[in-house]
Amino acid sequence: MIDFAVPSHLENYIGGYLIGPLSGKFIDNVNPATGEVYCQIPDSGEKDVELAVGAAKKAFPKWSATPAEERFLVLNRIATLIDEHRDALAEAESTDNGKPLWLSKRVDIPRASANFRFFATGIMHFSADSHTMEQTAINYTLRQPIGVVGCISPWNLPLYLFTWKIAPALAAGNCVVAKPSEVTPLTAFLLARICKEAGLPEGVLNIVHGTGPGVGEHIVKHPAIKAISFTGSTRAGERIASIAAPMFKKLSLELGGKNPNIIFADCDFGKMLKTTVQSSFANQGQICLCGSRILVEESIYEKFKTAFLEEVKKLKVGDPMEADSKQGAVVSKVHFDKVMGCIETAKEEGGSTLAGGKAVKPEGRCAGGYFIEPTVIEGLGPHCRTNLEEIFGPVVTLQKFSTEEEALALANAGHYGLSATIWTSDVSRANRVAMQVEAGIIWVNCWLLRDLRTPFGGIKNSGVGREGGWEALRFFTEAKNVCVQL
Ligand code: NAD
């Protein structure tokens, strides 16, 4: 029986044991929908990371030599246990993060189990190349686990993104020292209990809770950790790269975005409208793939604006635990202040607020929570702060274009290059524009349709490297070529 009750103090998971931080220090964990502290999380430090690395190093010889079929069995058991406890995990996720419960149940938790199942099965099909030099030699390439690897994840999709990293790392035979966001630690803590129940050997996965500087940097700096997989802000990514690059570590950086949503007049208007409301505001706009810059062809601009605003005003913001809340709380007071500040900046830059722009104060249990109205801003050009900097909240801007060239110039303005969405019924144009948009992930006439086999990641300041499918298994293995002369 796994215990899903939330203890007053969360613990690290090191060497197969749940233990408190060596410093004895803790940080408040706040429910963003109520503003109340509901548990404490370890404020771990260098010594806890050292302990975790020691446990991972000890576990590595056996785990890396464990046949893929056995790794599959235990990782698949973890997936099954996540599925079996979907409701408890979803409740924990929504309490910790503020996202609607229906979203955690429908997206976050099912995707966490899918991550384990996908890479558990993937490792049984993973193979490497061989190259024959006619009559001379055969080369074969070994794909060997790296050793101890570090995985650091953000708060917006807590268990979803945490497992997206650790599942391929473990499947490939590595041992992991992982750090979830200190803002949303709860489901990672519960995952430790699941891993124990599933029979994951001690030390194979170690979870150290704490802050970026307190834990994350010590993971990045540790000489025994040979690869770092990081998802988070571009600023933290830059800092991590500056530490890891001179140590010649393998690095995967999934960073921020400011994604364009390019809408041509010939699109399927109804489908586009419905999806654009989702791509703008899903998870309170706190998905790195949300389309925060909506670019609309001039001939349908007014029609779009009227219809879009009508839909946006229908979105109910409120208690994440209520089934009809379309929008929950943003993740923290700090983030609430940041997003509200961005809305002020937009006004100072001359933008007009067409919808939203204000905090929401629900009655009852959520009166102290951090809620923001879905906000739509118009009248700003591509080079202002509002259209260049990531807001990562329920705020989108509208801009119009009259030609394909103009749409591309707007789409490619700025330093980010994570994803883009293109709406058109002209297949040639869809492909032409897709080829020219500077982003790593393009959706045509859809959004967030994910096939886990596809490469996932950004260009420009949105990151380095790709996750997903074979890309992830290649990242978490070292290629070694063996050349045998005939
Ligand atoms: P963040 O960079 O503040 O933190 C992410 C994680 O890194 C946290 O666990 C944090 O404690 C840790 N961290 C912070 N500073 C660190 C340091 N110096 N060394 C090591 N670890 C450190 O990001 P966030 O606010 O948690 O998440 C939001 C950001 O994540 C947004 O920019 C969003 O676009 C990005 N994101 C990107 C993707 C993607 O796939 N590209 C997906 C989700 C979120």
UniProtKB/TrEMBL annotation:
Keyword Oxidoreductase: yes
InterPro entries to which the protein is assigned, alphabetical: Ald_DH/histidinol_DH, Ald_DH_C, Ald_DH_CS_CYS, Ald_DH_CS_GLU, Ald_DH_N, Aldehyde_DH_dom
Similarity section: Belongs to the aldehyde dehydrogenase family.
Domain Aldehyde dehydrogenase: 25-482
This protein's name: Aldehyde dehydrogenase
Active site, per annotation: E254
Source species: Flaviaesturariibacter amylovorans
Top-level taxon of the source organism: Bacteria
Keyword set, alphabetical order: NAD, Oxidoreductase
